[in-house]
Amino acid sequence: xxxxxxxxxxxxxxxxxxxxxxxxxxxxxxxxxxxxxxxxxxxxxxxxxxxxxxxxxxxxxxxxxxxxxxxxxxxxxxxxxxxxxxxxxxxxxxxxxxxxxxxxxxxxxxxxxxxxxxxxxxxxxxxxxxxxxxxxxxxxxxxxxxxxxxxxxxxxxxxxxxxxxxxxxxxxxxxxxxxxxxxxxxxxxxxxxxxxxxxxxxxxxxxxxxxxxxxxxxxxxxxxxxxxxxxxxxxxxxxxxxxxxxxxxxxxxxxxxxxxxxxxxxxxxxxxxxxxxxxxxxxxxxxxxxxxxxxxxxxxxxxxxxxxxxxxxxxxxxxxxxxxxxxxxxxxxxxxxxxxxxxxxxxxxxxxxxxxxxxxxxxxxxxxxxxxxxxxxxxxxxxxxxxxxxxxxxxxxxxxxxxxxxxxxxxxxxxxxxxxxxxxxxxxxxxxxxxxxxxxxxxxxxxxxxxxxxxxxxxxxxxxxxxxxxxxxxxxxxxxxxxxxxxxxxxxxxxxxxxxxxxxxxxxxxxxxxxxxxxxxxxxxxxxxxxxxxxxxxxxxxxxxxxxxxxxxxxxxxxxxxxxxxxxxxxxxxxxxxxxxxxxxxxxxxxxxxxxxxxxxx
Length: 602
Ligand code: ADP
Ligand code: MG
Known about the structure:
This protein is α+β, with helices and mostly antiparallel strands and about 600 residues long. It is built from 19 helices and 24 strands. Helix 1 (about 10-20) packs across helix 4, helix 2 (about 25-35) packs parallel to helix 6 (about 165-180) and helix 14 packs across helix 16.
């Protein structure tokens, strides 16, 4: 006899189950999707022992007729597609007809269902593929499916199930995805008899986010909407300070189906580039609608991936709508204040301590008022630093000049602390600015405007009286050959000076305080390392980021009142002022209302 045999049906189902049913959460997902496809408005999910003992889903959908009940558990049994062309425009959550058959091949299942016009409900039981006859029974309109002891005949798979808590985390994740995409559904999740979530129908997305995540996340979200070329996007964006260490707070939905997609992830990363640190992930909830003919959903067993006909459109529209929103926002990070404590009665030793502190503060305040005279001159904004070389205007020229009229609006209420931070009063509180980070952003935005935007413009440079020479490696020489355009743009003139040496003839005025050879070396290393990974535009931005960082005033430098005013005024006029080009905050805001709360004034 030949060695090849056709597998029996139950075996086929068990193998299919391996693809779609990985753990209790997969069962929850499939049953919820079926309830939604059946038009349910209310769904109750009850789970025991993280779903290992029981998963029960009850809905008030259209139900399954008695004569169809057994058939629903057959492999490839579906009421959702019939002919080949249906595959091209799938609008239901399911269509492959394999979920119920797969689940029933690896667990004990009982289904009770009743359609609107049926005289009674019908039920059926299936134990790892072995069915009973469907029979009439009492029951409400709609469907209940109970799944017990998942994988109980498959010890190898059962032992991969984790603790009830871990399995519950996965179940909650699927519940969350469905709940966010279907705010019109009344949904309840119960674990071991305890209600975990009760979500009423008609809640807004933000209300659902507050329930499923936290009110804090929900309150700070920025709303975006866009509609172009058949793609409608509606998004809720986390502010940069809410960014996370992983992408668990990114939810993308396409026609109410949760999906993962590398183009969308990339567009989001690009849109937030420069306002969050590169290693962080923004919180983003993105809801997209497009005709179902414009993508293929039949590319993944659990349908978590789709294939867009025009992924460029998806990418560019998401990137544009998010970037535009972020540009137009004040994204200052709110100060992280401790929660006020209830009991404020100080202990004996802290009373002594605070007495000393009070004295110190009084002395410091007196000192401050002696020192902090009003600004003397208002004309020095393109100032030259005393240590700058003759003819070279220092980096602070990039601090935006302040018109006399505007100047009155910059509150002279500022103060430089530790030669690094500027505290300044604003309408509804005060801000603390990191002088280096803000100046870096101001210079970077200016550089982008002047030389990044496809212009032939280059930075003004100064001829060095004595050219500076530096030795370069072969790899650096290669980086120089292929990227000489960047050096030109920056106004750095280089000449060969021996086999492995170059001479720096001219250097940008902007970098007056930077050692030319050191900068050129660092720039060559950057190009050498990044040129293979990045396209020309990204690479140019990296170069500009590095240039801005080197040119910006450093922490630890005392600033004149004019310089501080210029910095604060610059903050008002540039884009993305709240973060430095690397995505770290430039500004932290203390709001009056939070201060009042902390000082128990209200
Ligand atoms: P699919 O969802 O891909 O069609 P399933 O195996 O999940 O395949 O379900 C098979 C069929 O059983 C569905 O097409 C539907 O007709 C019926 N069905 C399953 N669950 C429900 C439910 N909760 N209410 C009504 N009909 C259901
Ligand atoms: Mg289904």
